[in-house]
Design brief:
By secondary structure, this protein is mostly helical. Helix content is 59%, strand content 2%. 44% of the residues are buried. The structure holds carboxymethyldethia coenzyme *A.
Length: 441
């Protein structure tokens, strides 16, 4: 067994028995009440999931195993001469619950390199898709084609002891994370770069190699990819991509099936697709105003117009956060360091000044502040990465680190199939009239 797998086994076995003891003593304790509005309105604020890898606080933002983004940018190992964390480090942290050393991260880099082979039939499957297929659709289809490689699925068919589930899931998870950059880069080069592909560079880290295979070989762009793939990795368990991966995995669907399901959720415009929508919205604004430096007044009018035709302002608002997303701030810092005079970034920062008071004045939006997607596209655009309908794929490659390390934990803790209770409005009305018991009271 590999060193990291062995550590995961030891740590998760300990955690498993601690949880069993806790539930024996406190299993009947109530965590909260559920209101009828919460049931009808997206289960907002109902605590109903365990996700070990990260925790989101409405006021201070995401913490990965207790560490904030600024702390991780300082503490996680970096590439030689680099300033941004290597995403291998956040995966290690989420999986094992402790900060990695430089050696741990190098070890993971070489494991990912070793296991990154993608069989040719996956590329052939991608080749068979019309070129105008959305890159997220291609990404999901690539992952689904790769499902044929699942060790878990094969072992399950042979007949597997429950105790062995986690080990095969773990192996699939590592294989899948290792292979995703190759699939994503293939889609990028096929769709936008005349199908001219670039061989992986065995000396580069996971993010650096991904940048290289897409055709971006400057050290500054690699640094952006390292930051990007670190900060998008996880956002606790209730968001659509994480929850879907967990839900599908709870049926013992293997990591390929589970992750592909999560990616279908990430492809929605209210979730991950918002990153492409933001750039599209800004470019449309620039085209309409015939200016790449719109003033605050012009932005204000454009925002009001967007709202008046019943559209959302992409990149703003959040179901949990009630402050500016720390992931937005990390990207703004990167921009101020590397490209402070870029006109598109300056527009993003001007939008940040203009939009929150307008959204606030509507009185119904719970969070008028920018989320991660408000900033990410502008950084990519600066480096000439202008194919914005690909941006969500980058988010997806990063999100694999969080949702798949969580999937390892799901199986290691033997979490059961997820099956909440649903109700009908007829039963609700009957309950309100005292004719039916739906609340268990
Ligand atoms: N622009 C305009 N209206 C907005 C808005 C925005 N950015 N954010 C919320 N609202 C509206 C909602 O549509 C809702 O309107 P109705 O009552 O008319 O239906 C009202 O304000 C209340 O919504 P909320 O409780 O504040 O927000 P939700 O928890 O329901 O939704 C989110 C959260 C992110 C879907 C929403 O803020 C939104 O649509 N934002 C724009 C899309 C976006 O940036 N998504 C990316 C989120 C991060 C990610 O997952 O990647």
């Amino acid at each position: 067994m590999g060193v990291i797998k062995q550590q995961f086994k030891d740590i998760s076995e300990k955690q498993n028995s601690a949880i069993k003891d806790m539930l024996k003593e406190h299993g009947d304790k109530k965590i909260g009440d559920v209101t009828l509005s919460q049931v009808y309105q997206g289960m907002r604020g109902i605590t109903g999931l365990v996700t070990e890898t990260s925790l989101l606080d409405a006021q201070s933002g995401i913490r990965f195993r207790g560490f904030s983004i600024p702390e991780l940018r300082e503490k996680l190992p970096k590439a030689p001469g680099g300033a941004e964390p290597l995403p291998e480090g956040i995966f290690y942290l989420m999986l094992l619950g402790k900060l990695p050393t430089e050696d741990d991260v190098h070890h993971l880099t070489s494991v990912f390199q070793r296991r990154s082979h993608v069989p040719s039939y996956v590329f052939n499957t991608l080749e068979s898709l019309p070129i105008n297929t959305h890159p997220m659709t291609m990404f999901v289809i690539g992952v689904m084609a790769l499902q044929n490689e699942s060790r878990f699925a094969k072992e399950y068919q042979k007949g597997m002891n429950k105790k062995d589930y986690w080990g095969f899931m773990y192996d699939d998870v590592i294989d899948l994370i290792a292979r995703l950059p190759r699939i994503a880069a293939y889609i990028y080069r096929r769709k936008y770069k005349n199908n001219e592909h670039i061989e992986p560079d065995g000396l580069l880290d996971w993010a650096g190699n991904f940048a290289h295979m897409m055709g971006y070989d400057t050290e500054e762009f690699r640094e952006l990819m390292r930051l990007y793939l670190t900060i998008h990795a996880d956002h606790e368990g209730g968001n659509v991509s994480a929850h879907t991966t967990h839900l599908v995995g709870s049926a013992l669907s293997d990591p390929y099936l589970s992750f592909a399901a999560g990616m279908n959720g990430l492809a929605g415009p209210l979730h991950g697709l918002a990153n492409q929508e933001v750039i599209k919205w800004i470019l449309d604004m620039q085209a309409e105003l015939k200016s790449d430096e719109p003033s605050a007044k012009q932005i204000e009018e454009y925002v009001k117009k967007t709202l008046s035709i019943g559209k959302v302002v992409p990149g703003y608002g959040h179901a949990v956060l009630r402050v500016t997303d720390p992931r937005f701030i990390a990207q703004m810092e990167f921009g101020k360091k590397h490209m402070p005079h870029d006109k598109l970034l300056q527009t993003v920062w001007r939008i940040y000044e203009v939009v929150p008071p307008i959204l606030q004045s509507l009185g119904k939006i719970k969070n008028p502040w920018p989320n991660v997607d408000a900033h990410s596209g502008s950084l990519l655009y600066h480096y000439g990465f202008k194919e914005f309908d690909f941006y969500t794929v980058l988010f997806g490659v990063s999100r694999s680190l969080g949702v798949l390390s969580s999937l390892c934990w799901d199986r290691a803790l033997s979490l059961p199939i997820e099956r909440p209770k649903s109700i009908t409005t007829v039963s609700v009305n009957n309950w309100l009239q005292g004719k039916e018991d739906i609340a268990g009271d």
